[in-house]
Amino acid sequence: MLYRSTRNADEKVTASQAVLKGLADNGGLFVPEQIPMLDVPVEKLADMTYQETAYEVMKLFLTDYTEEELKQCIQKAYDKKFDTKEIAPLVKAQDAYYLELFHGSTIAFKDMALSILPHLLITAARKNQVQNDIVILTATSGDTGKAALAGFADVKGTKIIVFYPKDGVSPIQQKQMVTQKGDNTFVVGINGNFDQAQTGVKKMFSDQGLAKEMAQAGYQFSSANSINIGRLVPQIVYYVYAYAKMVKSGEIKNGDNINVVVPTGNFGNILAAFYAKNMGLPIGTLICASNENKVLYDFFATGTYDKNREFVLTSSPSMDILISSNLERLIYCIAGNDAQKNQELMVSLQEKGSYTITEEMRQQLTSFYGNYASENETAATIREIFKDAGYVIDPHTAVAAAVYKKYQTETGDQTKTVIASTASPYKFTRSVMTAIDETYNSREDFALVDELASLSNVKIPKAIEDIRTAPVLHNTVCEVEQMQSVVKKFLS
Fold first, then answer.
1. How far apart are CA 195 and CA 323, in angstroms?
2. CA 31, CA 229: separation in Å to the nearest integer?
3. What are the tens digits of pLDDT across the range 6-62?
4. pTM attached to this predicted model
5. Degrees (nearest 5) of the Cα angle 368, 372, 377?
6. Which of 267, 273, 277, 391 is at a distance of 20 to 30 A from 235, taking alpha carbons?
7. How far apart are CA 431 and CA 454, in angstroms?
8. 430 within a domain of the structure (yes/no)
9. Strands ordered across the beta sheet of 185-190
């Protein structure tokens, strides 16, 4: 299995090289030359553990990793860092099945992929005789940063630098990042939004002069963002796992379609479901849920992607994104894997802030449904599901649940549906508690944590207890245009 750049048909690499590089030379993303078909029957998958399922899916994509290497990476990743044996439990509430992806060490779905990426990366470095230290350079809208920091902290031969929008993450998310231990970790708040942080990181990746300077100093960049194929492949696993478990429990019969709802900003998580569908998993509709930064909803409604709009800070900050990087992989696919056509659209996005796909391309998006939830609808959904089912969800998951209700109303579709539950409510206690009852708004953040524990009867996660009294270790703040100089200073 080789990987191609979405912007250059001539650039081909192996899986381990794609994981190592993160981003293609000209700013393109690596995609597999073809999507492999699942080669294990669902009946057999139904009896497998999460770790066994992960191997059966990932071996099809990461073909230059040996069986021993891949199984070792999986065992190191999906261990006691997760607080449930199932790794990704399915919980039924009202008429949907919530796939809880937040049981890892940083209580967000990013753990599902970022627990394994460091192991895939170090294995790839050995495999490709890399002598340089690897510098993980990442922008985060809240969750990727902490999950990447936790994954790479004190991993020999690596350093990690995380940029986040200083005023664009939740208090808990910020505290998780700025208290991160590890001699190789560096966290920087920027005076700007996530899109500016992400653009700054991408510029550094494509700066050939900087790459030479880095190499002379004994470093090379790689990415932990979802632009890295090593992030995307592990995310496919949990959709396959969820389907197999629904068959095992008798909720569906093998071959029955399910729908999948994903709250998304950067498009990686729903793209993983799209890949699972193309591997033969019986997924009917892929429901793309946006918050008030509804650039993806508008794209599916009109065929035009336009980031020229106001950037809104919401209660679901991990989705406060106007440039959905992973959408490029889908665009490349519906353009007939035509790198030239995709490159033209991406240049238009860079120069004009927008592009419009052809009608022929739009016709290939019929399995997608897009909608969005306002801040009021998000809060109302948290409150309603708690009162009706006694189940507490975070704002991102609430966006998905609200959009699912709209989808049902519009279509009448009663297909069994899995909602990707992307973060623990404990990560967004203020938003969750004030949605349930506005009188909680006057309380201090960690008092709300205790209140949520008594309300939900769910134990406070270790990730939250650990940061209650943890000292702040990272207090660097910079302007967007200072990002490169900050990186150089840290590495020197």
1. 6
2. 7
3. 999 999 999 999 999 999 988 899 999 999 999 999 999 999 999 999 999 999 999
4. 0.93
5. 140
6. 391
7. 17
8. yes
9. 219-222, 133-139, 158-165, 185-190, 476-478
